[in-house]
Amino acid sequence: MGLIAATSSVALAQSPTFQTPGMPNWAASGQIDRFSSDFNPAIGALVDGFGDYVMTDEDDGEGLDLFLRSFEMTVNGRIDPNWYGYAVVVYSDEEVELEEAAVTYAGFEGNTTLRFGRFFVDFGKQMQAHIHDLPYPDRPGVLAEYLGEELPGVGAQVDHWWTTGESSALRASLGIFSEFELGGHGEEGSGEPSVAQPERGDANDLGLTGRITQFMDAGKTGVFQWGASARHIGAYSAEDEASGASIEGLSTTTFGLDATYGFDSDDGLSGWTFGTEYLLATGDIGAEFDGVGASVLSGDRGGYYAWAERRVNPQNAYGLLVSSFEHLESAPTDEIQITGYYTHFFSEFARLRFAVSHADIEEAEDSTRFLVQLTTFFGPHAHGVNW
Q1: Exposed (0-12), middle (13-18) or buried (19+): which is 149, by Cβ within 10 Å?
Q2: Which residue from 314, 360, 321 is spatially nearest to 339, judged by alpha carbons?
Q3: Could you give the CA distance from residue 276 to residue 272 in angstroms, rounded to a whole number?
Q4: Which has the closest alpha carbon to 90: 122, 113, 120, 64?
Q5: Which of 46, 107, 296, 345 sits CB 3.0–4.6 Å from 72 for a disulfide?
Q6: Does residue 189 surpass a pLDDT of 50?
């Protein structure tokens, strides 16, 4: 038997396609062949739609609007006994974006996992969750201002759990990132300075995140959790789109402290949840351009949110969210946001929400928003959330 015949006979025994020496063995790369269903990840989808009416003090920007906030596709799958991965693709604002794509290794001894890729940063109680998964319609204002509506990063993160007694557990995470989505610091096309991180830099230019949190039983049916978080941006630049002027070498850190308490009725069908989080942004929190020169905004800005929710039964809940914070400006203005909402779950796959929110901004016009939100889920819906 010749070499080619021997090679092809071995290849055909492993795969239905001919393989030449030095080429990948596709039979060991996830599927037996291109038509098999042996590797069958869980696929899901989500539609998040809104209808709202806005009123303002000066009749500017008032009116009714109907819009699709997002359409989301998710893929979750186990790679082997030690690895699993997921990806999230989102259509929003007439753009398609790969929001998350990460793999997790869970093959260490003990309660340690390691995640790689693009995923939501482990900060506080809310930023790991996609906005449609929150108990209220929008991200609390202080989080949106200091961290962004969403906070994905590209990097790696290690998590570890410890038991701290018979009724409590402690979790800590540490992440290193080459890129953050710098929401809250100015976005392209907004008229504010656009921000970006260097594509390559020194080790001290990288971003870092850390979180420590503890859960503990509180009474017969209650759970209390506290946490502390930090996100450090080692280096970023700000550019004025109109003049082209820019400032480089900026650095900022955001700290957070959070606490949550929830308890259920004896039958587990109803209950209350109370939560709060305080944020402090410090360092080079932004930049301002006047057409001639530029100045760095350095200092501290702070704010908080607090919320309470009453779960009447598995299908109905209502709650109140309050957020108060200083804007990231040289002469910071204060803003208070208040949102009351009611949520009805038709099933685990469909949710209808009614809400009223009011924003009171110092030295600016106030606004009131009435909204209806309909969210539907198709198939499984899960991301890489750590609470």
Answers
A1: middle
A2: 321
A3: 14
A4: 120
A5: 46
A6: no
> Where are any strands of DSSP class E within the chain?
42-56, 63-80, 83-92, 95-105, 112-120, 152-163, 168-180, 194-196, 207-218, 222-239, 246-264, 271-289, 294-313, 316-326, 334-347, 350-361, 367-378
280 - beta bridge partners? 255, 302
**Rg of the chain in Å (alpha carbons):** 24
Hey, CA dihedral for 74, 126, 142, 66, is it positive or negative?
Answer: positive
Report how far residue 215's alpha carbon sits from residue 387's, in angstroms, rounded to the nearest whole number.
10
Do residues 199 and 184 make contact, with C-beta atoms less than 8 angstroms apart? no
The reply to whether the predicted model has a pTM over 0.85 is: yes
pLDDT tens-digit readout, 54-104: 998 776 778 999 999 999 999 999 888 899 999 999 999 889 999 999 999
Nearest-angstrom CA–CA distance, 327 and 333: 6
Residue whose tokens read 């506080």: 124
* Amino acid identity for residue 35 in this structure: F
**Calpha distance 210→153 (Å, rounded):** 13
In contact, 345 and 314? CB cutoff 8 Å: yes
DSSP structure class, residue 26: G
**Choice between 87 and 37, residue whose per-residue pLDDT is larger:** 87
